[in-house]
Design brief:
The chain is of the alpha+beta class. The protein has one domain. Helix content is 19%, strand content 44%. It is built from one helix and seven strands. Strands 1, 2, 3, 4, 5, 6 and 7 form a seven-stranded antiparallel sheet that branches.
Length: 107
């Protein structure tokens, strides 16, 4: 009987842990297009597990969890980032990397 109770408790622990670990699956990502008032750089395409954006436009978009930002010339990866819609400035933190990327439009 103790073995059955132990196995059941272990199963619940494993299922709970795997559910928690699976929370950053690609299907859970939020997608957003951000545009600064200084539109000369074009739109910014972003994905993250959490996206919080103030109202009204312009505001600062707060992106958290598996952040990927694609803009003309680069892809930024980070744990979190803030995008200022007035200036177009990005402040990123946590495992930040930037790699070259072809422009999103052919200007």
């Amino acid at each position: 009987m103790k073995l059955i109770a132990f196995a059941a408790a272990l199963l619940l622990l494993v299922v709970g842990f795997s559910t928690a670990m699976g929370q950053d699956r690609a299907g859970d990502l939020k997608h957003v297009t951000l545009v600064s008032q200084k539109f000369e750089r074009g739109p910014v395409l972003a994905t993250a597990l959490s996206v919080e954006k103030g109202h009204p436009y312009p505001s600062v978009a707060h992106l958290k969890g598996n952040v990927v930002i694609k803009a003309n010339g680069f892809i930024l990866h980070a744990d979190q980032a803030d995008y200022d819609e007035v200036s177009g400035e990005i402040k990123a933190s946590g495992n930040v990397s930037v790699t070259p990327y072809p422009p999103l439009n052919n200007r």
